Amino acid sequence: MQDFRYLEDVATLVLDDQKCIGCGLCTEVCPHAVFEIQRKKARIVDFNACMECGACVSNCPADAISVSPGVG
Question: Would you indicate the residue range of the signal peptide (predicted)?
């Protein structure tokens, strides 16, 4: 499997830990495994793999994730 990488540290991805309800939808829809559930909350585990597609934002029922697609 190829490891997709983009420019380092330019993604606009932000996860609000206080809003996260730990549903895990972000882990299911992210095509590059940017998120994991740890201690009943989502965590960004591979920030630089984010391609800013917005799938996580569109599927987060708690509005805990933000990204500006195409900016980074």
Answer: none
Neighbours of 15 (CB within 10 A): 20
Handedness of CA 23, 47, 17, 72 (dihedral sign): negative
Q: In this structure, what token pair is assigned to residue 7?
A: 């420019």
Residue 37 to residue 9: CA distance in whole angstroms: 22
DSSP for residue 39? T
Tokens of 61: 């029922």
What class has domain 14-66?
Answer: alpha beta
